[in-house]
Design brief:
Bound molecules: glutathione
Number of helices: 9
Number of strands: 4
CATH topology of the largest domain: Glutathione S-transferase Yfyf (Class Pi), Chain A, domain 2
Shape: globular
Mean pLDDT: 93
């Protein structure tokens, strides 16, 4: 059994989708990031970066003590290796999947995160930041579009790289990105969205909170960059 420390957000969905796709048993342990639960000392032992998701696998390959993993890229690779699914085992195929997972982790996710932040959550309008992240997001969608030309998936077969990217691409409307400018991304997005396991993963924890809900005062306090973190300030 795997404990999934989770809240329904793009990073959370990557792992709920992977767990569903892989048919693994898991228990959701909600981490309400709007209420500061990512700073609980017990959670920080699992995820010292005070970010969800994280997992604890009580039945790791080879047995022994439970394995805890934070950072979605690491979790996806761990789950793919545990199940032998959604990541090839040959050197070249494996490296290609890891490249695209890293691309998502270092580019697509963080840049969409910043784009959304400066568009919707920043307390003041900062045109320079909005333009910088807006342009970077379009550049990344362009990279993805060229990669997907003539391909069904980011790598040879459906893989954890697709699972890493899809939950961020789904934010395109809210992020005011015109997906029709990226026809290969659009076709890939539509191809994936009908997968039953992906849809189940995307719905996990829907009852916990609206994924695109507005931040209230307490959420703002918990989620705004604060140099004193990971100390909770109240
Ligand atoms: N690089 C991390 C990012 C995870 C992340 O940013 N999670 C957000 C929600 S999508 C979070 O936990 N935020 C809590 C906070 O900002 O304090 C990963 O891929 O696991």
């Amino acid at each position: 059994m795997i404990d999934l420390y989770y809240w329904p957000t793009p990073n959370g969905w990557k792992i709920s989708i992977a767990l569903e796709e892989m048919g693994l048993d898991y228990t959701v342990k909600p981490v309400n990031i709007g209420r500061g639960e990512q700073f609980d000392p017990e959670f920080l032992k699992i995820s010292p970066n005070n970010r969800m998701p994280a997992i604890v696998d009580h039945d790791p390959p080879g047995g022994g003590a439970p394995v805890s993993v934070f950072e979605t890229g690491a979790i996806l690779i761990y789950l793919a290796e545990k199940t032998g699914r959604f990541m090839p085992t040959d050197l070249r195929g494996r490296m290609t999947v890891i490249e695209w997972v890293m691309w998502q982790m270092s580019g697509l996710g963080p840049m969409l995160g910043q784009n959304g932040h400066f568009k919707f959550y920043a307390p003041e309008t900062l045109p320079y930041a909005q333009e910088r992240y807006g342009n970077e997001v379009l550049r990344l969608f362009g990279v993805m579009d060229r990669r997907l030309e003539g391909r069904d998936y980011l790598c040879d077969e459906y893989s954890i790289a697709d699972m890493a990217c899809w939950p961020w691409v789904i934010t395109y409307k809210k992020q005011e990105i015109d997906l029709d400018q990226f026809p290969h991304v659009r076709a890939w997005y539509d191809r994936l969205k009908v997968r039953p396991a992906l849809r189940r993963g995307y719905m996990v924890g829907r009852e916990l909170g609206k994924p695109s809900g507005k931040w209230d005062e307490e959420a703002r306090k918990n989620l705004m960059p604060n140099p004193t973190l990971p100390q909770k300030t109240d």
